[in-house]
Design a protein that fits this description.
The structure holds two protein chains of two kinds.
Chain A (H helix, E strand, L loop, with lengths): L6 E10 L2 E11 L4 E5 L6 H9 L6 E6 L2 E3 L4 H6 L2 E4 L11 H5 L6 E2 L2 E2 L1 H14 L16 H14 L4 E5 L7 H16 L3 E5 L3 H7 L2 E6 L2 E7 L5 H9 L19 E9 L6 E6 L3 E6 L5 H8 L7 E6 L2 E3 L4 H6 L2 E4 L3 H5 L6 H11 L6 H13 L16 H13 L5 E5 L7 H16 L3 E5 L3 H7 L2 E6 L2 E7 L4 H8 L11
Parallel strand pairs in A: 3-10, 3-11, 6-9, 9-10, 15-20, 15-21, 18-19, 19-20
Antiparallel strand pairs in A: 1-2, 1-4, 4-5, 7-8, 11-12, 13-14, 13-16, 16-17, 21-22
Helix pairs in contact in A: 4-5, 12-13, 12-14
Chain B lengths: L1 H37 L7 H26 L7 H16 L6 H24 L5 H19 L9 H8 L1 E2 L2 E2 H19 L1 H11 L1 H6 L4 H27 L11 H11 L11 H20 L4 H28 L4 H7 L1
Helix pairs in contact in B: 1-12, 2-7, 2-8, 2-10, 2-11, 2-12, 3-4, 3-5, 3-10, 4-5, 4-10, 6-10, 7-8, 8-10, 11-12
Classes of the chains: A alpha/beta, B mainly alpha.
Chain lengths: 500, 338
C-alpha cells in the first residue's frame, strides 16, 4: 500500500525579473515528519517556502496536498488548506493580546458578539497542548520575548488546524534556552501528527530535530536524504557543492598592504559582541556569515548608524568616536548599504543630484575639486544613463549601484564598507564592480566587503572574517574553501584563538 | 488558577494608559481649580460646571467618531462640514413640525452615513490618502453650503431644542447622550468583530489581511460611523441654534476632535487607543477652556496655551512609543531585506 505523502511539490520553478531562483525542485513531506530544507544564502529555501505558503506563486511545477492538486494564490488559501507558516518577520499585532492574535480574523462568537472567554480558554488550551502553560493568553504580544512571540505564531497556526507548519530560520533570533523550548514544541507537534518544514542552515539543529533533509543549491535540488544516512560534513559539502569557478579579477599590480587604517577592538552593541577587526590600506577584508550573524550590524556600527556601545575604533592610528553617519563621513568612512533603493539612493532624483549628495550634505568633505571629479568618476565606472539629469529610478540595478559607489568615492574616503554590493545586479555590472573594488585597494583604501555569496568573499578578499551569532567565529585567508567558511559560519567550528 | 488571574491582568494592562489619561484629567482639574481660586473664583461653581459639561458634548460626538477612523490609521477632516450640513438637513426637514423630528433624525443619519461611505470608498477603493480624500470631501461640502445657504435655514421645534438646553442638575442632556454614545462605541470596539478588527487594520494592514480580515469593509465602516457621529453633532448644533447653520464649519470642530483623540492616547498611526481615553481628552479640553474663560485670559493666549498643552501631551506619548519600538527585535529588518 502506498499512501500519498502529505505534501508533494514537483518540478517547481520560479524566476524573479527573469532571474531564475528555483528550477525543477521537488519536495515531499510525510505526515508527522520533521523535514529540513537546507542550503546556503540564496539557494532558494525561502522562495520555496513562500510558494508553499501562498506568498509567491510558482512559474512551473505542481503542488499536491493529501494527494489533491492545489494552487495557492493567497496566503489565506494556504492557511485554509492546512499549511501554516511562521516567517522570520512575525505576523503579530504588538498591541493585541496573545489570545486576540491567535484568533485574529476568526474570533469565536456568541450571539453575534465576540466571546472573549472562549477565546482565552481556547488559547490556554492550545498553549498547554504545546507545554507552555506559563505564557498568559492575555499578555500583550508586543511585551513578549521573541521566543514567546514565535510560540504565539505557532499557536495561531495550530488553532487554524494546520497539518503542515513551515518555519523559516526559527532559531535565528532565539537564545539557547529558548531553542530548547522550540525543540520540545516541535516534539509535541510530531506526536500530534503535524508535519514540520524546518528551513535552516544550522547543521546541529537539523541533526537534532529532523527526519529527512532536502538540500538546495543555486535554486536546484541537490538531494533528499534521511538524516541517518548522512554525516554533518557530507551535508555541508552537499550544500556548498562544486561550483563553476567565477572569474574574479586578480589583485592589481602595485597594490601594497600598508598600515592599519581601520581598527576595532572589543566592539559590541545590542546585536554584536567582542568584535576585533583590522583593515589595512590596500587590503580587502571579507565579512562572511549567515543571515542574522551580525555582518550588517558591524557595517552599521562602523558607520555610526547603530554605533558600538562598547570597545574602540581607531582610524589611521588615532582613536575616533563614531556616533553617527555624519561623524563617519567626516572621518573618511563610506558605506554602500545593502538596500540600494531604500538606503542608497533618492530614486526620484537625478544621477547628478545623487552623485553629489554626500558632498553637498557634508561640509567637511565638500570641495569644488571633488565636485568637478564626479563626471569623471561616473564615466570611469562605465555608467550607462541618458545623461546626468535622468532620474535614477529608471536605471538598471547595476547602474544604480554605480551611482551609489560614485557618490561615496566622490568624498575620497579612506575606509569603504561594501554591504552586499552586487545584490540584484547583472553579471556585467558585477564584474565591473569587482574590478572597481580591486582598484580601490590598489589606491590604498581599506575595504571591508560583506557578501552573502561566499564565492565573492573568497574570490576577492585577502582575509575572511567569519561571524556566527554576533561574534567572530574565525578568520581564514583569502581563497579558503567554502567548506571551511561554512564550518565557522554554522558554528560547527569556532576560533581556536577566538577573541574574548 | 492562572486562568482566573488573566482577566485581571488584561484589564490592568489595557487600563494603564487610560488610567494615566484620567489622572492627567484630575491633574488639570486640580491645577485649574487652584488657578481659578487664586483669582478669587470657584471652578466648581454650578455655572462653571455647566459651562464645562456643555463644552464636552459637541466635541465629544465628533471625537468619538474620529477615534474609530484614527484607530484604523485613517483620518476625517470633513466632520466639521458634515456637522454643519447635518444641522441644515435637520432644521429644514423639521421645519417647525414636531411630528417630523424622527424623519429629520433619519435623514441626518442617512446623509452623513452616505458621506462617510464616500470617504471610505475614496480611501479604500480609490486608494486616496485619507488626509486628502476627506479634505476634498470637506471642500466639496463647503462649496455646496456656501452657495446654497447664504444664511440660517429651517426651523427647529422647541421640543427638539430641549436637546440643546435641558439639564439634569448641572449636567446637560446632550452630555448624557454623548456619554451613552461613547459607551456604545466602547462596547462596539470590544464586542463586535468589526470593531475589534479596527485595531488590527490600524495596527498592521498586512497582518490583518493575512489573517482573513476584510480590511476595506472595516475601514469603510469606521468612516460611516465617524460621519454619523458628525451627523449627531449636527443635530445638536440645530437644537442649540434653533435653526440650521452653514457657518458652523468655521469653528474648525474637526481640529478639536483630532486634538481630543490624540490627547486621549489614541495613536495617530492607528492600532492603539480607545474611546474611554478620547472622552478624557474631550474633558481635558473642556476644563482648559472653562478655566481660561473664568480667568478671562485673552483669546490669543488661550489658543497658545491650548496648543502648548496638546503638543506637550503628544510629545510625552511619543517618548513612550519610542521605547516600545526600540525593544522590537531587529531581525525583522534583516528578514525584510532579503
Amino acid at each position: 500500500m502506498t499512501r500519498s505523502p502529505l505534501l508533494a511539490m514537483r518540478g517547481i520553478g520560479k524566476a524573479f525579473l527573469g532571474a531564475p531562483v528555483l528550477s525543477e525542485v521537488d519536495l515531499t513531506i510525510e505526515r508527522g515528519e520533521v523535514h529540513a530544507l537546507v542550503g546556503e544564502n540564496g539557494a532558494g529555501k525561502s522562495t520555496l517556502m513562500k510558494i508553499l505558503a501562498g506568498v509567491h506563486s510558482a512559474d512551473a511545477g505542481t503542488v499536491e496536498l493529501d494527494g489533491r492538486a492545489v494552487s495557492f494564490g493567497h496566503p489565506l488559501q494556504a492557511q485554509h488548506a492546512g499549511v501554516a507558516s511562521v516567517f522570520q518577520e512575525f505576523n503579530l499585532l504588538p498591541e493585541l493580546t496573545v489570545s486576540e492574535n491567535v484568533h485574529l480574523g476568526r474570533e469565536p462568537r456568541r450571539r453575534g458578539l465576540i466571546d472573549r472567554r472562549a477565546m482565552t480558554e481556547r488559547t490556554a488550551e492550545v498553549l498547554s497542548d504545546l507545554g507552555v502553560e506559563h505564557l498568559s493568553p492575555s499578555a500583550k504580544a508586543g511585551s513578549l520575548s521573541v521566543a514567546h512571540q514565535q510560540i504565539t505564531e505557532i499557536a495561531k497556526a495550530l488553532s487554524q488546524g494546520a497539518d503542515l507548519l513551515c518555519m523559516d530560520e526559527p532559531t535565528a533570533s532565539l537564545a539557547d534556552a529558548e531553542v530548547e523550548l522550540l525543540y520540545r514544541l516541535i516534539g509535541r507537534l510530531r506526536e500530534r501528527g503535524v508535519s514540520v518544514l524546518y528551513v535552516s542552515h544550522r547543521i546541529r539543529e537539523i541533526f537534532d530535530l529532523c527526519d529527512r533533509i532536502t538540500v538546495l543549491k543555486d535554486g536546484r535540488l541537490v538531494k533528499c536524504v534521511d538524516t541517518t544516512d548522512i554525516t554533518p560534513d557530507e551535508l555541508v559539502t552537499a550544500m556548498v557543492g562544486r561550483r563553476i569557478e567565477a572569474a574574479f579579477p586578480d589583485r592589481l599590480p602595485g597594490t601594497e598592504t600598508g598600515e592599519v587604517r581601520l581598527r576595532v577592538r572589543g566592539g559590541g552593541n545590542a546585536w554584536i559582541d567582542g568584535i576585533d577587526l583590522d583593515v589595512r590600506a590596500g587590503e580587502i577584508v571579507g565579512l562572511a556569515g549567515l543571515q542574522g550573524s551580525g555582518r550588517t550590524e558591524i557595517a552599521e556600527a562602523v558607520f555610526g548608524i547603530a554605533p558600538f556601545t562598547r570597545g574602540t575604533i581607531e582610524l589611521d592610528g588615532g582613536p575616533v568616536r563614531i556616533t553617527g553617519p555624519r561623524k563617519a563621513i567626516g572621518a573618511g568612512i563610506a558605506l554602500v548599504t545593502e538596500d540600494r533603493k531604500a538606503q542608497g539612493l533618492a530614486l526620484r532624483q537625478s544621477v547628478r543630484a545623487n552623485a553629489r549628495m554626500v558632498l553637498d550634505a557634508n561640509a567637511r568633505v565638500h570641495s569644488g575639486r571633488r565636485l568637478d571629479r564626479i563626471p569623471g568618476l561616473l564615466s570611469s565606472l562605465d555608467l550607462v544613463s541618458r545623461g546626468d539629469d535622468q532620474e535614477v529610478r529608471f536605471l538598471s540595478g547595476g547602474n544604480q549601484q554605480k551611482v551609489v559607489v560614485a557618490k561615496w568615492l566622490a568624498a575620497e574616503p579612506g575606509v569603504i564598507v561594501l554591504d552586499e554590493p552586487t545584490r540584484g545586479i547583472d553579471v556585467g555590472a558585477k564584474h565591473k564592480l569587482y574590478s572597481v573594488i580591486r582598484s580601490l585597494a590598489a589606491e590604498g583604501l581599506a575595504v571591508l566587503l560583506i557578501a552573502s555569496e561566499l564565492i565573492e568573499v573568497i574570490g576577492l578578499a585577502d582575509r575572511i572574517v567569519v561571524l556566527h551569532d554576533g561574534s567572530i567565529a574565525g578568520e581564514l585567508p583569502g581563497g579558503a574553501t567554502e567548506q571551511d567558511v561554512m564550518a565557522y559560519a554554522t558554528g560547527r567550528r569556532s576560533a581556536e584563538a577566538g577573541p574574548a | 488558577m492562572t486562568r482566573r488571574l488573566s482577566p485581571a491582568a488584561l484589564s490592568s494592562t489595557t487600563l494603564s494608559s487610560t488610567v494615566l489619561i484620567y489622572l492627567a484629567l484630575a491633574g488639570v482639574l486640580v491645577i485649574g481649580g487652584a488657578a481659578v481660586a487664586t483669582g478669587g473664583g470657584n471652578l466648581f461653581a454650578t455655572a462653571n460646571l455647566v459651562d464645562m459639561f456643555t463644552r464636552t458634548s459637541l466635541t465629544g460626538f465628533l471625537a468619538i467618531g474620529m477615534t474609530l477612523v484614527i484607530l484604523c490609521r485613517s483620518l476625517d477632516l470633513s466632520v466639521g462640514y458634515v456637522a454643519a450640513l447635518s444641522s441644515l438637513v435637520a432644521a429644514t426637514t423639521m421645519d417647525g413640525d414636531v411630528g417630523r423630528i424622527p424623519l429629520a433624525i433619519g435623514a441626518v443619519l442617512l446623509v452623513s452615513g452616505l458621506i462617510g461611505g464616500a470617504n471610505g470608498v475614496f480611501v479604500t477603493v480609490l486608494g486616496v490618502n485619507p488626509f486628502i480624500a476627506t479634505l476634498g470631501t470637506g471642500l466639496i461640502l463647503k462649496g455646496y453650503l456656501d452657495t446654497e445657504y447664504k444664511g440660517p435655514a429651517g426651523d427647529v421645534p422647541a421640543v427638539f431644542q430641549q436637546f440643546g438646553y435641558t439639564r439634569i442638575a448641572f449636567i446637560p442632556i446632550s452630555t448624557v447622550v454623548m456619554l451613552a454614545v461613547a459607551a456604545a462605541a466602547i462596547w462596539f470596539l470590544r464586542s463586535t468583530r468589526t470593531g475589534h478588527h479596527m485595531y488590527a487594520v490600524g495596527g498592521d494592514l498586512d497582518v490583518a489581511r493575512m489573517s482573513g480580515i476584510r480590511t476595506g469593509r472595516v475601514l469603510i465602516a469606521a468612516h460611516v460611523l465617524c460621519a454619523m457621529c458628525a451627523g449627531v453633532a449636527g443635530l445638536l448644533l440645530a437644537a442649540r441654534f434653533g435653526t440650521g447653520s452653514a457657518e458652523a464649519y468655521t469653528n474648525l470642530y474637526e481640529l478639536d476632535a483630532i486634538a481630543a483623540v490624540v490627547l486621549g492616547g489614541t495613536l495617530l498611526l492607528g492600532g492603539k487607543g480607545g474611546v474611554a481615553g478620547t472622552v478624557a481628552g474631550v474633558a481635558i479640553l473642556a476644563v482648559l477652556d472653562t478655566v481660561f474663560n473664568v480667568m478671562q485670559i485673552d483669546p490669543f493666549a488661550k489658543d497658545v496655551l491650548r496648543g502648548a498643552v496638546i503638543i506637550a501631551a503628544v510629545a510625552i506619548y511619543a517618548r513612550r512609543q519610542l521605547d516600545r519600538t526600540a525593544r522590537r527585535p531587529r531581525f525583522a529588518l534583516e528578514g525584510r531585506a532579503s
